Amino acid sequence: MPGRGLLRVLTGCTLLSLGAVTVVAQDRWPYMTLQTAPYEPPQIQITKSGTTDPGYLFVGPRGNRPAGTAALIYDEDGNLVYQGPEQVTANFRVQRLFNQDVITFWAGNMTDLGFGYGSVHILDNTYREIYTVTLQGDFETPDDSVPDSYIDLHESHISARNTLLVTAYNVTQQSLTSIGGTPEDYMLDSLFYEIDIATNEVVHSWSALEHADQIALTDSKQGIDDDHGTHEQPWDAYHINSVELFDQGYLISMRHYWSGYYVHSNGTVMWQLSGEPGKGDFQLDQAGAFSWQHDMRIYNETQTGMILTLFNNANTPSETVAPSTGLSYAVDLVNRTAKTLRTLGDSKDAIHSVSQGNYQQLSPSGHVVLGYGSIAKIKEFDANNKVVLTAQFGTDNEVASYRGYKCAWKATPFWAPAIVVRRVSGNSAQVFMSWNGATEYDNWAVMTADSLDSVNPTIVTTFKRTGFETSGTVRGLKTKYLQVVARRGDIPLGMSPIPYKPGAITPFNLPTTTTQPQNRIETGTELKMHLNLSSLTLTLCLSPLALALPPNPMRMTMKMTMKIRPTNQTLGHATILNTCQDPIYLWSVGSTISPQFTVPPNTTYTEPYRRDPASGGIALKLTRVQNGLYTAAPQMVFAYNLVERQIWYDLSDVFGDPFLGYPVKVEYRSVDQGEGRDEGDEGDEEKGIEWVDGVSPGGSMVRVAGAEGDLVLTVC
What are the boundaries of the signal sequence (predicted)? Predict the structure, then answer.
């Protein structure tokens, strides 16, 4: 055996970590500046050269600046659609869970060794976090830290059986004398786990090191030198980076073996598909070689074969060999052959991705999206292997995104739109509007009213949606209060939570010009407005109006002395909490019928109170079968009617009792004077509705309460 430091080439995936990309000079890439949000995401450059598949671009950039390091969604015109919290993320995309579209991402801390520790977050189409998946266990970390969760960044794949497949790395002492090391060396064990999403319980786990008799350490392509093999710098022999359900087990990708392995559910390694000709259990054709790969996926699986796809990096941080490509194979499981079907690359833009990357097959068009990992680019190829879209969101080798996806996505956020108003003249104002994450609205209506309690606001103008943030000038303002509504056509989808009073900014001497603001919104301001309206003060209400001002002592005094009663500002929400063991299906019905919403077990559906312009009231109709609204399945109808500052509501069943034998309860949760919610307010109990066994006890179910409180219907 060659001595330590001479064995192969050292190829550590250091570009996977933030530390590696922060050593470059200050990033020269352009970033966005917004008025209604504190975000500074990278501008994305889109080049189209053909017909593309519909969808949004999902990336999780990391670079040499905290701003823009977040889960991001863009449309094909380069407009920002959504930005999540500023944190390191990976695998941000749309997946299916309980037959419902959700978005998922890993968030946590990356190490300089090319892996990380974090949790997987699952959000519904309102961006509510419905599941957080974590992993605990007897792990050792290089720096002896104890993270909240040991899930690695490389994989967070929802399986067809509604479980989550994840990877993990564990520092393990191991004799490495067979590769020129010592008996007391340390290495990284590569592990994968299958976790029940609903319970967070591990249902299966596997360790590569426990199967070293089948995956020999001497076969690793990853070199070891004098700087590796310690507890702080363990040797990474395997580098697992994807897991997929397959047959009676799993298909895993080991980057440092240039191979995919079929691991039976009993732990046995059944076969190896190697990218090195002459190795493994399958014969590759001449075009089929690959190395340092990522993201092995299976399609069209049968008992005798399958389609296998992967991202062929073909390069490392210390060795540049060939352009990175996307490869797909027809794998014959009987004759053990792998025939190359597609080799995807851009001859006019050869990219050498030294780490990370993915291959996403879009059905049924045959289009493919490649994310280039360490190079901040995404390319879409059509069925003829022609490049039809290139998206770049950072300078080469300075910004990375572990994977990049294109996904169909429809979302209406549970938070309200954001608004900034700036006085232009005595009766004119410039209005900036945005609704982070919303995909379904196409225009804004600007409304004015004489009072906070007005039920007949006047639409004074409308603006067509223009990207993430829309702005326009409103002239001829004659009333005190201003509010904006995001709409699809004439249908309101969401409105700013606080009416803004242009006259209220007069004491702050707001300039009558459109000068750029000297202060930006504090990072937490919008989040507090969205998530805890009950704790808002006048300062929060007016801070967007006063963006052009330096710090003002008057604002501090007002913050301490003038809290606004939330009941004069905000409306509550109607919430359905599903504590059943199975999903329930819901439609929000007024003069129109919403799409079917799937509410998985132990999750909620929430909508702000609204008044239908035609029907007035809203009925939330629940069934326990898909499409039950249209098949006369038993339905529960939770109806409410917003009348001025009161909410009238009742509960009924039609076509049977869908929750027969299970408790059903409606609770009214009131709001106090601004310090939060109090579920025990006197009188709240008499506003509730309770069916002990899921059947109406008879009598009137109609109740009435203040519209500032929330209604929560719990089933099962």
Answer: 1-25
One domain, residues 342 and 423: no
Return d(Cα 11, Cα 315) in angstroms, integer.
9
The residue to which tokens 């039950």 are assigned: 628
| Structural domain boundaries, residue 528 | 418-566
Residue 652 identity (one-letter amino acid) = S
Could you tell me the two tokens for 328?
Answer: 């797909």
Contact 234, 143 (CB under 8 A): no
- Whether the CB-CB separation of 313 and 323 falls below 8 Å is answered with no
Chosen domain end from 533, 566, 599:
566
Which parts of 450-592 are beta strand (E)? Answer: 458-464, 469-474, 481-488, 491-495, 573-578, 584-589
Who's near 216: CB < 8 A, 6+ residues apart?
none
Q: Which of 289, 291, 413 is nearest to 352 (CA)?
A: 291
In this structure, the answer to whether residues 26 and 164 fall within a common structural domain is yes
Q: Report d(CA 448, CA 221) in Å as an integer.
A: 68
Residue 8 lies in a domain: no
**Could you tell me if 80 and 68 are in contact, meaning their C-beta atoms sit under 8 angstroms apart?**
no
pLDDT of residue 698: 80
* Same-domain pairing of 31 and 155: yes
Do residue 589 and residue 608 come from a single domain?
yes
Q: Are residues 147 and 279 in the same domain?
A: yes
413 occurs within a structural domain: no
Cβ atoms of 389 and 46 closer than 8 Å: yes
What is the rounded CA–CA span in Å between residue 427 and residue 98? 52
Write the CATH number for 648: 2.60.110.10
Tokens 């959504």 — which residue?
82
pTM of the predicted protein model: 0.73
Residue owning tokens 């994840």 = 166
Q: Are residues 281 and 373 in the same domain?
A: yes
Do the domain assignments include residue 76? yes
**510 and 423 in a common domain:** yes
The larger pLDDT score, comparing residue 416 to residue 205, is at 205
Domain count, the chain: 3
The C-alpha atoms of residue 23 and residue 20 are separated, in whole angstroms, by: 6
145-180 pLDDT tens trace:
999 999 999 999 999 999 999 999 999 999 999 999
Share of the chain above pLDDT 90, in %: 65
What totals of helices (H) and strands (E) does the chain contain, helices first? Answer: 4, 45
Question: What tens digit of pLDDT does each residue of 438-447 get?
Answer: 999 999 999 9
What does the block give as tokens for 125?
């189409």
Cα torsion 649, 654, 657, 662 to 10°: value is -10
Contact 433, 417 (CB under 8 A): yes
Q: Is 218 exposed, middle or buried (0-12, 13-18, 19+ CB in 10 A)?
A: exposed
Going by C-alpha positions, the residue among 420, 662, 677, 656 that lies closest to residue 566 is 677
Name the burial class of residue 497, with classes exposed (0-12), middle (13-18) and buried (19+) by CB atoms within 10 angstroms of its CB. Answer: buried
Tell me whether residue 5 is in a domain.
no
For the chain, give the mean pLDDT.
84
- Shared domain check, 530 and 649: no
Q: Which long-range CB contacts under 8 A does 94-99 form with residues at least 24 apart?
A: 94/58, 94/405, 94/407, 94/408, 94/409, 95/157, 95/158, 96/158, 97/122, 97/131, 97/158, 97/162, 97/197, 97/600, 98/162, 98/583, 98/598, 98/600, 98/601, 99/583, 99/598, 99/626
Q: Report d(CA 412, CA 437) in Å as an integer.
A: 7
Question: What is the domain-level CATH number for residue 461?
Answer: 2.60.40.10
500 burial level (CB within 10 Å; 0-12, 13-18, 19+): buried
Choose the final residue of a domain: 566, 582, 600: 566
CATH (domain of 158): 2.120.10.30
Residue 561 phi, psi dihedral angles, 5° rounding: -120, -10
